[in-house]
Amino acid sequence: MTPVRRPHAVPARHRPWPLCRHCCGMALDMGSARTRAWIAGRGAIVDVPTRIFPGSGAVPPVQHGTLIDTPGCARLLQRLLADQLARPARPMIIVTAPVLDGLAYRTRARTALEPLRPRSVLTVPSARGIALAAGADLSRPVLVVDIGAHLTEVVLLTDGDVTDARRTALGTGDLDGTTTPGHIADAVAGMLTAMLRQDHTLLTTDALCREILVAGGGALRPDIVHRLTARLHVPLRVVPAPHTAAVRGAAKLLQAAHTHPSTSGGPAG
Q: For the structural domain made of 136-240, what CATH number should be given?
């Protein structure tokens, strides 16, 4: 009798969230002031202060875009998000990261996420998440100004990748009697001027001729946006819901990665 050969099982592609019961996912943005997470199937963004309480007072484990207390971040994320994730599936997680923090930030973020038992952890520049949330045409150069609580970044994206980036340890949380919205606008103008001087490809000029995307909590402040407009003399576009743009863009990438054929076959071990 000739043996019957059974065809190799072909793993089914993941269904869209929340219909997929094989895995779960999360997009995460850990800022100096707020931590925001989009959890697949929940339909809302978790938005809480980035604070831990090791003793008598609150302590920020993230300062000026740098993750300075990895164990503290791990406790914060586990307390806030562990019960939100479907069990026993292991989540796919995409984390936004400041452009210039590089490998150190990615390494610490992965360590902080270990209590959530992720299936995989991917990082994406916050500026790219913002551009995706804004529906920007990434086939052309795009300039993003991200004004956070204690960090402001100016980033040039080309084909979705970071071509140039500048930062200053200044944001809305630093505004007081001596630091004003004008100081933030001046810092942004200075970073853009430096980018123009050092760019011999005209990519920065191309992006400036169209518009600059403005996001982060600072984009919610008319006093900052008005001063930016007066300093730069170029079109500005405030991204819708600018304070959550980075995590919403990361959520778009998460959804695309979830349904990609390379992620089929259930969660990895």
A: 3.30.420.40
